[in-house]
Amino acid sequence: MRAACPPRRAVVSASAQWSASAAGLQAPARAAAATGSRPKSRRLWGQGNRRGVRVQAENHAGASAGLRPRLARVLRRAGALPLVVRLRAALCDDVRILAYHRVLEAEVPATFRFDPDLVSASAEGFREQLRIVRRRCAPMRFDELLDHLDRGRPVPRRAVLITFDDGYDDNHRVAYPLLREAGLSAMFFVSTGHIDSGRPFAYDWLVRMLCTVADARLDAPELGLSMALPDGLRERRALAARLLDRLKTLPAEAQQALIERLQAQWAMPDAGGHPDCRPMTWAQLREMREGGMEIGSHGVGHHMLAKLPREAMREELQASRAAIARELGAAPVAVSYPVGGPDAYDQAVMAAAADAGYRIGCSYVTGAQSLRDGPGHAWKRIPVEREMDPAWFDAMLALPELFCYRSRTRIG
What we know:
Blueprint (H helix, E strand, L loop, with lengths): L7 H15 L3 H10 L24 H5 L2 H11 L3 H11 L2 E7 L1 E3 L14 E4 H14 L1 E2 L2 H10 L7 E8 L2 H14 L4 E4 L1 H6 L4 H11 L4 E4 L4 E4 L4 H15 L4 H15 L15 H9 L3 E4 L12 H19 L5 E3 L10 H10 L3 E7 L2 E2 L8 E5 L6 H9 L1 H4 L9
Parallel strand pairs: 1-5, 1-13, 2-3, 4-5, 5-6, 6-9, 10-11, 11-13
Antiparallel strand pairs: 1-12, 7-8
Helix pairs in contact: 1-2, 1-5, 4-16, 5-16, 6-8, 6-16, 10-11, 10-12, 14-15
């Protein structure tokens, strides 16, 4: 087996700085590598965790004007990315696992009252990203990767896997046809309890309530919050981000109790759901599996597994795997931990995942995943954000150490 990828600094020094120098941008590359700078309008940390504290973007132009995308465009115009890809592949024995959530037909509509940062791409943006994956990389499925590892066969250099978390119905409606069109497969991690019930995810519904309830107060003494809700949508979305971050410090059962209390207080039950935020159905998942997609587990109720009582945590992992095996005819080989930061999974969760029969466990911590130790239960992924243009996405695949958002503070 090839050696593990050298430390991030060595990879940046060997490839990104060389390319930046060729394009006259060596100083910005060093600055980005040293500081992990990113657009000020984006998240307070860079792992791409979909539910954490976020500074809402003023507009996409601000995000697209940051150092990373500007450097990516220069490198792409200079034709440096293919050389960067080849150089990095010679140094690293790893895979890139792309992490998506939602793909909408077009840009986020003005009437959208859920979390816009869960929208990873528009349909056209996703189509272009798939073209780049086919052109630059070696797309693989999880079962193919495991077969290579089990047989001791070299994994193709520039291997890429595509994943989706949660199981939104736009995965079937928008992403699946585009994957078929491109001749590619993806792993869809689904929370089986929501597939069964059709109800939206609790975090999503909390954001919707906060963005739509009129003339209300937010009283959450367990989080030290008591306030009138602001009037503007932007301010309410910012409040929702702060509330979600605080909420995730609580045990999973306390999180659910708070959300249910607010549903009752504001007379906004989630039973009816909403067309902008629906989970897929088992029939849709069967169609996708028959069409070449892979289905994995995201638990039963989308709970942070490390914040559940241990027996309940084990039940989530076992019951979701059993439900997928029952409904689709094959047990999943992989699980993705809901929320996915270090406080969402721990050694006990990883051990329980292995005991339940999962070969791979995916986190939401950013980075290319080393293959030095074979399959594992704390695999990193590379989040895809909706403001990424083709050049940025292309550069992120070429050199994730430089062009991905990186972890800074608490994840989850």
